[in-house]
């Protein structure tokens, strides 16, 4: 059967070109970020901008966790993990009110720009790929026995990193086309 697709123009504009967009797994919130790091969080169904925010720098990567409760951004060589603002509640005036973004934590171990961020399916871990020729494995929260891990060996910038479907293998790809697969050895 033919599918019916619709497009809508959202009733807001960024001051500069949009550089990154991310959509929550449920598809209810859209985070758009311009070239200068100014972000707008939009309620997709209601088509309203719910929150304006500045990351105070150029966002080089953006990914929502599958849980929809966190997102991670690359800001140059830094990674910031943020809580997704909660659903609206009514304030005393009866207006919609959204909790502002709250930073969960920051990682500063990369030596060059972060190009890509990918979450594990359970939202407990995420990968970062960087121009510093490494990928790294991070945990959202402290995990017993887990130490953030550096995956090194590429000869050029790592442009992407992904978990396999069963989460047992990690694939990394560098600018020169090299694909590495990394397996957990206990």
From TrEMBL:
Coiled-coil region(s): none
Superkingdom classification of source: Eukaryota
PROSITE patterns: WD_REPEATS_2, WD_REPEATS_REGION
Name under which the protein is recorded: Uncharacterized protein
Biological process annotations from GO: maturation of SSU-rRNA from tricistronic rRNA transcript (SSU-rRNA, 5.8S rRNA, LSU-rRNA); ribosomal small subunit assembly
UniProt organism field: Verticillium longisporum (Verticillium dahliae var. longisporum)
Chain segments annotated as transmembrane: none
Residue stretches of each WD repeat: 107-141, 151-186
SUPFAM superfamilies, per the entry: WD40 repeat-like
GO CC annotation terms, alphabetical: Pwp2p-containing subcomplex of 90S preribosome; small-subunit processome
Keyword Cytoplasm: no
Thylakoid as UniProt keyword: no
UniProt-listed InterPro entries: PWP2, WD40/YVTN_repeat-like_dom_sf, WD40_repeat_dom_sf, WD40_rpt
Gene3D superfamilies: YVTN repeat-like/Quinoprotein amine dehydrogenase (2.130.10.10)
Keywords on record: WD repeat
